[in-house]
Design brief:
By secondary structure, the chain is α/β, with parallel strands linked by helices. It folds into 2 domains: about 230 residues, 3-Layer(aba) Sandwich (Aspartate Aminotransferase, domain 2); about 110 residues, Aspartate Aminotransferase, domain 1. About 35% of the residues lie in helices and about 15% in strands. It is built from 9 helices and 14 strands. Strands 2-10-9-8-5-3-4 form a 7-stranded mixed beta sheet, sandwiched between helices. α4 links the parallel β3 and β4. The protein binds pyridoxal-5'-phosphate (PLP). The site of pyridoxal-5'-phosphate (PLP) has 11 residues, from α3.
């Protein structure tokens, strides 16, 4: 039974945080670990902050078994600044300044728009099919893809074999939702606001031999080499977001790590897909089963385009029942349920029960 007033946030990010983490933040807000000041006012050069940021880095390393030859850095600017930082760092690896982008949704398309400013883009149109059918350019400086398309709810359940090309991955919305073999990548980047914390900090994991190069036009703040060389404090880091991320990483560790998150994600997403698939066309998930995201589940109601009146009624009723942020992305419409790490099985059971009930009421 829910506590009275218990609200579930199914938003695509910034997303739900673990309740225990929020309580910890509340407890420590005025006085961080007995030092008498808030983390919000603490210098990023102080020993307490350095201890905290090192702890967050070590947790990322431990939870993803990051090999020693990779740097883990925390930066500002979000995914959108990585869309520029990546080409600035890597597009000149080969003289042709040509790169391959696998475009499977809105975010990879946006990344292309930024990369275009720095070189030639080969867009590998793909429906997440077999990479052997992709038209990769052997002279590309790197291959770029987005592991989970937040807006359209499509997720790679494999790491593409790009034949030893430099591989860059936007892992924004499924980072630490499962174990990942980091050694297969050259660069991984992710915001914290989906699975590991709040908005404001972006985690970049980069193989150290990719630090050597950057275009001359690159700015210091976007250069991994500069940030890594200054322990993520070349400029003032997003201190509070890093603190929150540390708490969430600790929570992930205490709850079984990345492997446990993966198990839970499978159970949670299956609960919702089972309902859409058995609703005889009432709930329609537009994504092929093999490409479905375990993080973000989009569906229409009533017909393929979504019956506006039904969608509105669904959202209004869900809101009355304390389930928030189920509206699909503005470019897609319909409904979207985001089931990141902090969303519990009980939260999803509540949504599933509501979906079944809404369907039954419709059939009466
Ligand atoms: C997969 C993905 N990549 C990149 C971004 C862009 O992140 P930001 O809003 O921090 O620029 C988002 C944002 O939600 C995203 O979901």
């Amino acid at each position: 039974m829910d506590a009275p007033g218990y609200v579930v946030n199914f938003g695509p990010g910034p997303a739900k945080l673990p309740h225990s983490g929020l309580l910890e933040i509340q407890k420590e807000l005025l006085d961080y670990k007995g030092i008498g000041i808030s983390i919000l006012e603490m210098s990023h050069r102080s020993s307490n902050f350095i201890k905290m940021i090192n702890n967050a880095e070590n947790l990322v390393r431990e939870l993803l078994a990051v090999p020693d030859n990779y740097e883990v850095i925390f930066v500002q600017g979000g995914g959108s600044s990585q869309f520029s930082a990546v080409p600035l760092k890597l597009i000149g690896l080969k003289a042709g300044k040509s790169v391959d982008y696998v475009v499977t949704g809105a975010w990879s398309a946006k990344a292309v728009e930024e990369a275009k400013k720095f070189g030639t883009i080969n867009i590998v149109h793909s429906k997440l099919g077999n990479p052997s059918t992709w038209s990769l350019n052997p002279d590309a400086s790197y291959v770029y893809y987005c592991a989970n398309g937040t807006v359209h709810g499509v997720e790679f359940d494999f790491i593409p074999d790009v034949k030893r090309a430099v591989l860059v991955c936007d892992m924004f919305s499924n980072f630490l939702s499962k174990p990942v073999d980091v050694s297969k990548f050259d660069v991984i980047f992710s915001g914290a606001q989906k699975n590991v914390g709040s908005a404001g900090v972006t985690v970049v994991i980069v193989r150290d031999d990719q630090l050597r190069f950057a275009l001359r036009e690159s700015t210091s703040v976007l250069e991994c080499k500069v940030q890594a060389g200054n322990s993520s404090s070349y400029n003032t880091p997003p201190c509070f977001s890093i603190y929150i991320m540390g708490l969430v990483l600790e929570w992930i560790k205490n709850n079984g790590g990345a492997a446990a998150m993966e198990k839970l994600s499978s159970i949670k997403s299956q609960m919702i897909y089972e309902i859409t698939d058995n609703s005889h066309g009432f709930y329609i998930c537009p994504v092929e089963p093999q490409n479905r995201s375990k993080m973000n589940i989009p569906f229409c109601i009533g017909n393929v385009k979504g019956d506006d009146a039904l969608v509105k009624r669904f959202l209004d009723k869900a809101f009355e029942l304390n389930m928030l942020s189920l509206k699909g992305h503005r470019s897609v419409g319909g409904i979207q349920a985001s089931l990141y790490n902090s969303v519990t099985i009980e939260d999803v059971q509540k949504l599933a029960a509501f979906m079944k009930n809404f369907l039954e009421m419709r059939q009466l």
